[in-house]
């Protein structure tokens, strides 16, 4: 009987014909990760890095941010390349263990001047979180649109966690009242290190060598003790859904999360300058 007669004209399958299998060897070999053979990105802006590239960026961004603490791009890079393989996963897991954190991971909100309209925030009650946040932005002359996009974290969900932390940083400033100059940033970074355990926040403390003696003395005697107390006792701020509590009283939030408000750094610096000015005038008066 013919093959067609046996199968009634149906298409043939190889196993029914029992054709001998011929091994096929691929002529293409998988090439190792290199600068010329980079894996495809896993999300927009993603740049996969190999071990040597991460090491180079770690050293370069650490030295660059130490020389110029205002280089936000270098600080952002340092934060990303030192957050893996453990620390950013720990922070992601902390969000997964919290109901609000899980909701944030589902919704993936972004904090920008488009999602949080400043005119509305300025219209909120005096001591509300939204009003406090807007007032801090106005006083410091900063915008929520200046945060760099995450690039160097391979896991897409963990990349969002880092982006969320980065965009919440100004809310941390507003709730604590700490300003953006180096002394204030270092005080907040010390608090963030104990609250988030992101290595970059701890490494930033090396920038204290750039402070003036009086600033360094205030940081270590006044603001570091505050950072240790508040950082250790406070709940993890990554789990705050800021967009949903803008009308809440900021003092209630501090009490709920165990955050002690530090002394006003701007007022202290102002008082020190006035004291130095009076002392200078007194000495000049004596010399006349």
From TrEMBL:
Keywords of this entry: Lyase, Membrane, Metal-binding, Mitochondrion, Mitochondrion inner membrane, Ubiquinone, Ubiquinone biosynthesis, Zinc
Compartments (UniProt record): Mitochondrion inner membrane
Pathway: Cofactor biosynthesis; ubiquinone biosynthesis
Binding of Zn(2+), residues: 169-170, 173, 185
Pfam family, one: Coq4
Top-level division of the source organism's lineage: Eukaryota
Membrane association type: Peripheral membrane protein
InterPro entries associated with the record: Coq4, Coq4_euk
GO MF terms, alphabetically ordered: 4-hydroxy-3-methoxy-5-polyprenylbenzoate decarboxylase activity; zinc ion binding
Needed cofactors: Zn(2+)
Catalytic reaction annotation: a 4-hydroxy-3-methoxy-5-(all-trans-polyprenyl)benzoate + H(+) = a 2-methoxy-6-(all-trans-polyprenyl)phenol + CO2
GO CC annotation, single: extrinsic component of mitochondrial inner membrane
Membership in a protein family: Belongs to the COQ4 family.
Reported function: Lyase that catalyzes the C1-decarboxylation of 4-hydroxy-3-methoxy-5-(all-trans-polyprenyl)benzoic acid into 2-methoxy-6-(all-trans-polyprenyl)phenol during ubiquinone biosynthesis.
Subunit structure, as described in the record: Component of a multi-subunit COQ enzyme complex, composed of at least COQ3, COQ4, COQ5, COQ6, COQ7 and COQ9.
Annotated protein name in UniProt: 4-hydroxy-3-methoxy-5-polyprenylbenzoate decarboxylase
Organism: Aspergillus ochraceoroseus
